[in-house]
Amino acid sequence: MTRQIRVASGQGFWGDLPRAPIDQVKGSKGDTAIDYMMLDYLAEVTMSIMQKQRQKDPTLGYARDFPDIIAQILPDLLEKNIKVISNAGGVNPIACRDKIFEVAKKLGVKHLRVGVVMGDDIMTRLDDLLVQGEELRNMDTGEPLAAVREKVLSANVYFGAHPIVECLRQGAHIIVTGRCTDTGLVLAPMIYEFNWNADDWDLLAAGTVAGHILECGGQASGGNFLGDWQSVPSLETIGFPIAEMHANGEFFITKHAGTGGLITPAVIKEQLCYEIGNPKEYITPDCVADFTSIQLEDAGKDRVKVFGVKGAPATPFYKVSMSYSDGWTAFGSLTYAFPDALKKAKRADDILRARLKNLGLELEEIRTEFIGANACHQQLESLEHVNEVQMRVGVRDQNKHAVERFGYELAPLILTGPPSVTGFAGGRPKPSEVVAYFPALIRKERVSPVVVVEEC
Q: What per-residue confidence (pLDDT) applies to 77?
């Protein structure tokens, strides 16, 4: 049995630093040579964007950056025996797989095995599931899916690590999934390499914690650090984190030598607090991890030991991430200059709201930020002496015409409102569709992952 593996983070979201995965692979040597690299592309809103792309073009619906990255590192991946696991498949993992095969063909690479995990997209099954008694109630509000069914844009189940493990068992060099947990991308190679059982709850929880640390990329190596952020060296060349995992569940977080950024217990603690609810019950499809059991130890320069993680049995449910169309929104801005910049901006906001009311437009929501005065901290609203303020107004309504009409009222403020105004460019604000999030639970027996591994 393998005693130790290294899993590197290559992307924290779709649009993350393009060179990060390339640096991880190119820098793989010596004490920080990596065995696996995970790339996380998906967020809740991303799935609806990809669904719309696929509706327009059946060959789309995946993270198109991913095959381009593979094109730059594929020879190195094979030479260094680094396996790649990513959820870049979005709502069309087969198309993503086919694009990778095209890349391999152009590079003259043969016998590349690519695994695909599907079955998470239940968009076409929603009506049948409702008939079968799955109410799919909103986890936050309790509202049944039936209330918004006609407006649903995407519906994807969060699978865990085990379908990815099956791809590894079938010899996949690269694995592309649809919606799965970010942590599952990291946990899977540990289950595979260490032969962990499906009920080794403490070990699975340890791998899940490692996945949680890696999932946001550079945020675990000094990026977006709220502590002594000025002490983080060379963010220009930040090195993404690497988990050095041991079979007993203990692991170290580190990065390639000579790269920028910072890995300390304080940095790792911030990442551990990211996007968690009850810290004693971090729920995934694979296990429930107790974040209050995590122990950290400074193990040297850019090296933190993580140990003591406890876990509990997995729940009988998968989480379903759904999105639906919920009206229209538009945003516009004007900038006011000294003197009395904030007073001018506030007066312009009053005028705009009065004109909208006079038109009979009772919009569902109007929000105004005074950037430079109170956009981040509302309690600073009394701050009057600023050199310049950007008034940014957003509106939202189910009526697209009403939102569009708002766009006609912003520009006239330039000549019919307070003085010293600038910053209007790009034409009138135009309506864009509001995509709302609808999380639900579904019993695991209702959904089955589909694994396909093929060779080019």
A: 98
So where are the chain's domains? 4-120+158-315, 327-437
Residue 382: predicted pLDDT: 59
pLDDT at 48: 80
Q: Do 122 and 157 contact (CB within 8 A), yes or no?
A: yes
Collapsing DSSP to helix, strand or coil, 128 comes out as helix
Q: Which helix (H) or strand (E) holds 66?
A: helix 65-80
C-alpha span between 223 and 11 (Å, rounded): 13
Q: Determine the Cα–Cα distance for residues 286 and 188; give it in Å rounded to an integer.
A: 10
**3-class DSSP state of 10:** strand
* Closest listed residue to residue 299, CA positions, set 258, 242, 253, 261: 253
CB atoms within 10 A of CB 17: 16
List Cβ<8 Å contacts ≥24 apart for 277-282: 281/312, 282/208, 282/209, 282/212
Residue 246: other Cβ atoms inside 10 A: 16
Q: Report if pTM > 0.85.
A: yes
Strands 4-11 and 365-371, by their bridges, are: unpaired
Cα separation, 42 vs 179, whole angstroms: 7
- The CATH fold assigned to 327-437 is Alpha-Beta Plaits (3.30.70)
Query: From CA 338, how far away is CA 435, in angstroms rounded?
Result: 38
By the 8 A CB rule, do 88 and 66 touch? yes
Give Cα separations from 172 to 63, 78, 85, 112, 251 (angstroms): 20, 12, 10, 8, 25
Cα–Cα distance, 375 to 286 (Å, whole number): 40
DSSP string, 184-209: HHHHHHHHHHHT--TT-HHHHHHHHH
Q: Which residues of the chain have pLDDT under 50?
A: none
pLDDT at 427: 86
pLDDT attached to residue 1:
63
Quick one: which of 448, 440, 454 has its CA closest to 142?
440
188, HSE (Cβ side, Cα atoms, 13 Å): 32
Per-residue pLDDT, 384: 66
Report how far apart, in Å, the C-alpha atoms of 227 and of each of 115, 177, 263, 271 are: 40, 35, 12, 12
Which residue in 139, 142, 192, 121 sits closest to 163, CA to CA?
192
Cα–Cα distance for residue pair 407/147, rounded to 1 Å? 30
Distance of alpha carbon 102 from alpha carbon 90, whole angstroms: 18
Q: Which residues pair with 175 in a beta bridge?
A: 85, 115
